[in-house]
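FAQ

Q: What does a record look like?
A: Structure on top, sequence underneath. For example:
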């Protein structure tokens, strides 16, 4: 399982760089603009320069409206700025067809410029609270749009977590659907260390965190701490070892 960490700017990205041995992807966002809030192009560029070259930089394009042209142009902006993982939160899409239209525009805009870039179609575990496409629709939306991964995060950061909205069995189904479609499955949403056993067992490819590696577990007032990134990674590794040692159920 890969570890994606979301700093809110250059200062926290430098904290990620200090913990670079313990993480896989640095994900630039602007949390005060929403769960997948987009940061400025110059911040993406500066962070690309600050983290080791072998660590991919991801950028969120925002909790986007159903405006395919606007979103495609924003996604290209993130790519030109140096991000190679482009994450789109399909906040304003109420039907799978709308979401596919948005993601097709993103895939074309991004891959015309950078064919090896990785496009992530993200929905929300708490979609029922905001009226957007349902979580289990994401793998098919990602597949039909040519995206590379399907993701879930939570839209409303009020202390509720991924499993409060999409229980472990349903997250397992999400991962299965993504894998059947040839995609990676990414899961996030106030994930804590105690969730790692389940996330490992169901075969999650990428886990995204912020709050869990911030001081005091607080994604807003806390800052990312390299020590907490290392501890989170150690826990991931422990679960990976235990899972590998567990005989597969027949
Ligand atoms: O992409 C991952 C998100 O930044 C998760 O943030 P969170 O762990 O604070 O919910």
């Amino acid at each position: 399982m890969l570890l994606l960490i979301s700093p809110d700017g250059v200062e926290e990205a430098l904290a990620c760089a200090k913990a670079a041995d313990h993480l896989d992807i640095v994900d630039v966002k602007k949390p005060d603009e929403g769960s997948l809030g987009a940061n400025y192009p110059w911040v993406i560029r500066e962070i690309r320069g600050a983290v080791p070259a072998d660590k991919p930089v991801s950028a969120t394009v925002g909790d986007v409206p159903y405006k395919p042209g606007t979103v495609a142009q924003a996604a290209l902006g993130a790519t030109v700025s140096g991000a190679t993982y482009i994450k789109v939160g399909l906040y304003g899409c109420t039907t799978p067809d709308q979401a596919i239209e948005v993601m097709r525009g993103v895939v074309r805009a991004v891959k015309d410029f950078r064919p090896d870039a990785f496009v992530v179609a993200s929905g929300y575990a708490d979609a029922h609270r905001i009226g957007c496409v349902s979580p289990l629709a994401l793998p098919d939306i990602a597949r039909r749009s040519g995206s590379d991964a399907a993701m879930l995060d939570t839209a409303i950061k009020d202390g509720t977590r991924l499993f409060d909205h999409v229980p472990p069995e349903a997250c397992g189904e999400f991962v299965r659907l993504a894998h059947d479609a040839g995609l990676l499955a990414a899961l996030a949403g106030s994930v804590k260390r105690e969730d790692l056993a389940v996330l490992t067992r169901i075969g999650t490819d990428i886990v995204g965190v912020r709050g869990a590696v911030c001081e005091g577990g607080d994604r807003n007032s806390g800052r990312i701490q390299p020590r907490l990134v290392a501890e989170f990674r150690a826990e991931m590794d422990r679960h990976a070892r235990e899972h590998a040692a567990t005989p597969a159920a027949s």
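Q: Is there anything notable about this one?
A: Strands lie at 2-5, 25-28, 57-63, 85-89, 118-124, 149-153, 184-188, 206-209.
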